[in-house]
Write a structure and sequence with these properties.
Number of domains: 1
Largest sheet: none
Number of strands: 0
Structural class: mainly alpha
Order of helices and strands: HHH
Length: about 100
């Protein structure tokens, strides 16, 4: 996982927290009356809907990239089966050595 993906996941997590907090604020102020509060609540609700839509787009993009990576890996394994077996064996050996050191 590269740093761009890590940053994207952190941003998505942070946005989910902000959206959750904004929704909680809307619920807490539901009983408040007044023109300014009503207008602010409407703007916040609109912003929440936009943010949720963007988060869904980012999530879909991540799913599409994961599927593309899986397809590319599958194609590589089918085109180079023995190299794939060698890579898997080497990875297993490294993991075994690391676990054995503990």
């Amino acid at each position: 996982m590269n740093s761009v993906e890590v940053n994207r996941e952190k941003l998505v997590a942070d946005m989910r927290v902000v959206i959750s907090d904004a929704e909680e604020l809307l619920r807490a102020t539901a009983g408040q009356a007044g023109e300014k509060i009503s207008a602010a609540r409407a703007r916040i609700q609109d912003s929440i809907e936009v943010a949720k839509g963007k988060l869904a787009e980012v999530g879909e993009l991540g799913v599409q990239r994961a599927k593309a990576s899986a397809r590319a890996t599958d194609e590589y394994v089918h085109e180079h089966p023995w190299q794939s077996v060698g890579i898997a064996a080497l990875a297993g050996l490294v993991v075994g050595i690391l676990i054995g050191r503990r």
